[in-house]
Design a protein that fits this description.
By secondary structure, the protein is an alpha/beta fold. The protein has 6 helices and 5 strands; from the N terminus they run βαβαβαβαβαα. It has a single domain, classed as Rossmann fold. The longest helix is centred in the C-terminal third of the chain and has 15 residues. The protein starts with 12 loop residues before the first strand and ends with a helix.
């Protein structure tokens, strides 16, 4: 199965940023059959990626060394006007309010399932590219 094409007839490009290498690799493996995945191991690295790459969606861990996931998603939204998803096992009420203020698409609380991940990614992409029909395609294939 090849990655889904965006309106520009290229695969949707997803940034996955998490300092936990094993977790990041697992999330990448889940997404890679459907999307072009770019990895970052820290908030600083993720910021660099958002400045040099054209991306359709960013999926960032909240608690990373250097810049946080909120820092990355704030800059990503400002620079590329695309949605971002925040991942975390611990989200304080203050962090949740900040995510809402920054228009983070969703906060995914760890641990989450493969289906939750793919459904959230598809919904976020459809919020920008409604004609893509990713969610219905994923459901038809039994992915989410």
């Amino acid at each position: 199965m090849s990655p889904q094409a965006s309106p520009a007839h290229r695969p949707f490009r997803l940034l996955i940023a998490d300092d936990d290498e094993a977790f990041r690799e697992t999330v990448c493996e889940v997404c890679r059959p459907f999307l072009e995945v770019i990895e970052a191991a820290s908030g600083d690295e993720a910021l660099c990626v958002t400045h040099r790459e054209q991306l359709d969606l960013a999926l960032c861990d909240l608690h990373m060394p250097g810049h946080t996931g909120l820092d990355v998603l704030s800059e990503f939204r400002r620079a590329q006007q695309r949605p971002g998803i925040l991942m975390s096992a611990r989200v304080s009420p203050v962090e949740r309010r900040e995510a809402e203020r920054l228009s983070v698409y969703r906060v995914l609380e760890k641990p989450f399932t493969r289906k939750q991940l793919l459904a959230t990614v598809a919904e976020a992409l459809e919020s920008v590219f409604p004609q893509a029909g990713l969610l219905s395609q994923f459901r038809h294939r039994g992915v989410c």
